Amino acid sequence: MNIKISEIWFGVFNPTAGNINHKKVIENIKNKLNLSNINFEIYTTKHKGDAVKIVRNKITLGYRKFIAIGGDGTVHEVVNGFMRQGIVPSDQLVFATIPIGTGNDWAKHHSIPCNIDSAIKILKAKKTSLQDIGLAIYQSNDVLEKQYFNNVAGLAYDAFVVKKLEQRKSKPNKFIYIFSVLSYLFQYKLQKAKIKIDHHEISGKFYTINIGICKYSGGGMSLVPHAVHDDGLFAVTYAKEISKLSIVFNTFRFYNETLIEHKKITGIQAKSISINSNDNTPIDLELDGELVGHTPVQFELIPNAIQFIRG
């Protein structure tokens, strides 16, 4: 079957991203795209996971260029749409982002500003780069699931905080997130885990475990400061038994890329990782800020899997 390739940019707009007047913002974006002579369509997502389906469908219809209009969750869904289709190699598709979310951590890593005019200017410049993508294979409600991620995966305390915030149904900006990181600290108990990193194993009680492709998460925190998005390796950070007081006093390290300089925090790089609980308590997993399931989990890396418009 011959598919006619479209030159139209297909925009995926998340109307729940950020704390903004969405009707006003999307009209502003449409006007500025028109003024920039960019041929586009925009689809407004209706529920969580909707963007994955619409992107896959549009690829079958010949669309090859996409714009994620939202935050990290929107980028995550567009990427999963790319990776979950079988029409063309994922690196032959291209996407840009106009960041209007509360976190925009993926955009921060790639120097894409949270300013509509600047983001559209970057889109028009059409400078592209490739990025690695992670695949997580995990458990959810006794079913084996898999999902792709483009930024950072977190287990143990990291996922504990995401779960607490989801229960609050709040939109965490970076100030709420860091407040939550500190306030939930005294509710959390270290979890027993066994981590297999390439060819060696680490066991013990863990405060947190992060697997990164890009550097930033949680509204600007750098838990994997050694992450390089196109080096074919995961950046892994883990903290074993560390005092809560030490965490409070070292909060500044979350933001100045010195976290793995702390003597009780380890930062390494790896091609494959598997994590399991060392007791009968599953360890929760979040991908790009979304709680998805729990251990056992296997991480696999797909080098240079996506092409994006860079800052």
**N-to-C CA distance:** 36 Å
- Topology order in helix (H) and strand (E) letters: EHEHEHEHHEEEHHEEEEHEEEE
Q: State Rg.
A: 19 Å
User: How many domain regions?
Assistant: 2
Q: Helix tally?
A: 8
Shape: globular
Q: Quickly give the structural class.
A: alpha+beta
CATH architecture of the largest domain: Sandwich
Q: Give the total of beta strands.
A: 15
CATH class term of the largest domain: Mainly Beta
Mean pLDDT: 93
Helix share bin: 25-40%
Strand percent estimate: 35-45%
CATH third-tier fold name of the largest domain? Tumour Suppressor Smad4
Q: Poorly predicted ranges (pLDDT <50, ≥5 residues)? A: none
Brief write-up:
With 311 residues, this protein is α+β, with helices and mostly antiparallel strands.
Description of the molecule:
The chain has 311 residues and is α+β, with helices and mostly antiparallel strands. It has 2 domains: 6-126, Probable inorganic polyphosphate/atp-NAD kinase, domain 1 (Rossmann fold), CATH 3.40.50; 133-303, Tumour Suppressor Smad4 (Sandwich). Helices cover 26% and strands 36% of the residues. The chain contains 8 helices and 15 strands. Strands 5, 6, 7, 8, 9, 10, 11, 12, 13, 14 and 15 form an 11-stranded antiparallel β-sheet that branches.
